[in-house]
Structure formats: structure tokens, C-alpha cells
Design brief:
- It is a single chain.
- The chain has 117 residues and is an alpha+beta fold.
- The protein has one domain: Nucleotidyltransferase, domain 5, CATH 3.30.420.
- Helices cover 37% and strands 20% of the residues.
- The protein has three helices and four strands, in the order αβββαβα.
- A four-stranded mixed sheet has the order 3-2-1-4, covered by helices on one side.
- Helix 2 runs parallel beside helix 3.
- The longest helix is centred in the middle third of the chain and has 17 residues.
- The chain is globular, with a radius of gyration of 14 Å.
- The mean pLDDT is 91.
Amino acid sequence: MANSKMQLKKKRQFRVRKKVVGTTERPRMAVFRSNKHISVQVIDDSTGTTLAACSTYEADFRQGSGTVDGAKSIGAKVGERAKAAGVTTVVFDRGGNRYQGRVAALADAAREAGLEF
């Protein structure tokens, strides 16, 4: 029986989420990617709180939101916001997406902004 793309993505999500857990010292940087937008949150799973977030749904980032350049700007901004919240190291949760294109561009921009992972 063939699995649909969504079922395969859910399998990848669960496989990654089993191993990747955010703590107070090292929160989880979770990425959500859709066809038009990309959003990222820095989450402390022990308390269930979001420490920093950025998305192309925000008015400042709507221009070029579904592109690699948009993902780079989101990565740089979430890096700045996380540093302002006192976070320097994170665990990267790609959300079942492949590490390529917009997800890789976001991660590289966050690293350049000063986050370690």
C-alpha cells in the first residue's frame, strides 16, 4: 500500500520529534513551511513556552515571503529575537521537511545571526 506525501511527512516529523527536545538551556527551533509562507519558533518544551518567533505572516516580511530570500530574512530576524531573549544555543527541528532550499537558507541565516546548532 502506497503512502501519501502527507503520511510520509508525518512519519519524518515523529521520527525527528522523538530525538529533538527543547530544554531551558537549549530550546527547540521549530520550522513550519507551507507553499507560500515560512515560520519559526524557539520553544522551551519543558515549560511549553515560546521564547521567540518570526514568520512571513508578519507585515514586515510579506514581500517575497515564499522565496529563499524571504527565508533568509526570517532566519536573521529570529536569530536577533532569540539573542534578545537570552538564547544562544538551540536544537534545530526541521519539522519533517528536507534540509534544502528555504529550510537550509533559514538555518544558515540564523547561524550567521549568532545562534549555535
